[in-house]
Amino acid sequence: MKKHVLAMAVAASTVALSGVAQAEVKIGFLGGFTGGIESLTPPIFDGAQLAVDQVNEQGGLLDGQMIEMPTGDTTCSDASAASNAADRMVNTEEVTAIVGALCTGATIAAANNAAIPGGVVMVSPASTAPAVSELDDNDLVFRTVPSDAFQGEMLAKLLLEKGIDEVAVTYVNNDYGQGLSDAFATTFEAEGGTVAANLAHEDNRADYRSELGTLSASGVPTLVVLAYADTSGQTVLRQAYESGMFTQYVGADGMVGNSLVDAVGADVLEGMIATRPGSPDLPGTEMFSEAAEEAGVDPDAVFAAQAYDAAFLLALAIEQNGSAEREGLSEALRSVATAPGEVILPGEWEKAVELIAAGTEIDYQGASGTHEFNEAGDVPGIVVEMVVEDGEFVQVGELEANDS
After folding, report:
1. How far is CA 310 from the centre of its chain?
2. Is pLDDT of 9 > 70?
3. 32 and 96 part of one domain
4. For residue 345, is it within any domain?
5. What is the CATH number of the domain that holds 236?
6. What residues have CB less than 8 Å from 42, skipping those under 6 apart?
7. How do residues 239-275 score in pLDDT, each as one tens digit?
8. Is the peptide bond before 101 cis (omega within 30 degrees of 0)?
9. Are 310 and 125 in contact (CB under 8 A)?
10. How many C-beta atoms lie closer than 10 Å to residue 99's C-beta?
11. Residue 130 structural domain
12. Which of 67, 81, 88, 65 is nearest to 18 (CA)?
């Protein structure tokens, strides 16, 4: 009887130990699953999930632990929703790190109210406003997407290059819209263009005809809309068309979604010009595209590649840090992202684990860039031109920083 009990105890302890070996490390994902970018969020999440799946399929991290990615909905525009979702991630789910948030206001709210107090590293693949750079974040908030200080400049130069030198601008009244509008207007006017009217608008309203009337009084035919494809941006464009006020439409990354074209009309938006962050022509870009297509993920979806890189970088940083503890993770993140080191490309998880175990420095060069973080946690990047053709946004090409 004693032998039987002893055998059961040994078996139980073996099960317990195997359970420890299969423990989970949590990397949370905060996104706007409802609200202004609800059609853009799923493929962004898919990009991050692809990185997680690759890590798990190649043996996991920290000697076989699997990554779990719980999600939280920030709604994009509700700071309290973002704070609550982040609080759940940090204090209930007890995540090691977070991919996200996506909209700038959500990232700032999540960081200030939960992540920074909890010592949790956040890597946003989509928060582009310059305000993110100014957070007092204890080196906890990073992003794999360039600041709108750059995108606004490139959009302005693109329009001037096309001979569009007078515009009316309306932007969603938050950190994203304000930052992008300021960057755009500063460059546009410095390079000889005229912003004939520039008005903020509140998100999630049913009627923008008053604002459009003021904007159209300027008499210019080009309307620049810096907002979100699934909320105010869509409504502004539809009502602008219905009123016959403008003949050329322009947008930025928050507007680049085929849901916008479907909602407003392909014939209405044919020829619409836009910009969005893109991926440089690097080996990692092609590797990501192949893996994404094989997994049924759209590699060209806005911010999908940046989300993949955010998740893969965090996994590398956790492995480099040697534990699922939060302390030391930001330093480890900078280490795995920064040259010099043995180059790690998307999907090369097993190679990375072997190098880290051997004490070899690594340098991740990802799907959307090399991600050399500066002091503020920002990265250099590229901006690409998009245009609506035959009912969908298509990429025209990369915009050079020295365009004039």
Report:
1. 8
2. no
3. yes
4. yes
5. 3.40.50.2300
6. 33
7. 999 999 999 999 999 999 999 999 999 999 999 999 9
8. yes
9. yes
10. 35
11. 25-146+281-364
12. 65
User: Which stretch of DSSP H or E encloses residue 344?
Assistant: strand 342-344
Q: Are strands 273-278 and 382-389 parallel, antiparallel or unpaired?
A: antiparallel
Count of all residues that appear for the chain in the document: 404
Examine the domain organization and report whether 141 and 176 are in the same domain: no
Instruction: Enter the DSSP assignment of 400.
Output: P
DSSP per-residue string spanning 137-165: -TT-EEESS--HHHHHHHHHHHHHHTT--
Give residue for tokens 């990265």: 379
The tally of domains found in the chain comes to: 2
Q: What is the pLDDT of residues 197-245, one digit of tens each?
A: 999 999 999 999 999 999 999 999 999 999 999 999 999 999 999 999 9
3-state secondary structure 248-301: EEEECHHHCCHHHHHHHCHHHHCCCEEEEEECCCCHHHHHHHHHHHHHCCCCCC
Reduce the DSSP state of residue 67 to 3 states and report it: strand
4 vs 383, more confident: 383
The dihedral sign for the CA sequence 389, 391, 397, 398: positive
Q: Are residues 84 and 140 in the same domain?
A: yes
Contact 172, 226 (CB under 8 A): yes
pLDDT score for 23: 77
Helices 283-295 + 304-321 axis angle, to 10: 100
Quick check: helix, strand or coil at residue 108? helix
C-beta of residue 278 within 8 angstroms of C-beta of residue 21:
no
Q: Confirm whether 6 is domain-assigned.
A: no
- Model confidence pLDDT, tens digit, residues 121-143: 999 999 999 999 999 999 999 99
Alpha carbon distance 225, 169 (integer Å): 6
At 313-346, the pLDDT tens digits run 999 999 999 999 999 999 999 999 999 999 999 9
Per-residue model confidence (pLDDT) at position 8: 40
Taking alpha carbons only, the member of 132, 138, 146, 67 closest to residue 312 is 67
Q: 268 and 288 share a domain?
A: no
**Identity of residue 224:** V
The amino acid sitting at 52 is V
Q: How far apart are CA 338 and CA 362, in angstroms?
A: 8
Residue with tokens 């043995």: 342
Whether residues 187 and 308 share a domain: the answer is no
**Residue 317 CA: distances (Å) to CA of 37, 38, 307, 338:** 29, 29, 15, 12
* 262 and 298 share one domain: no
Kind of pairing, strands 66-68 and 166-172? unpaired
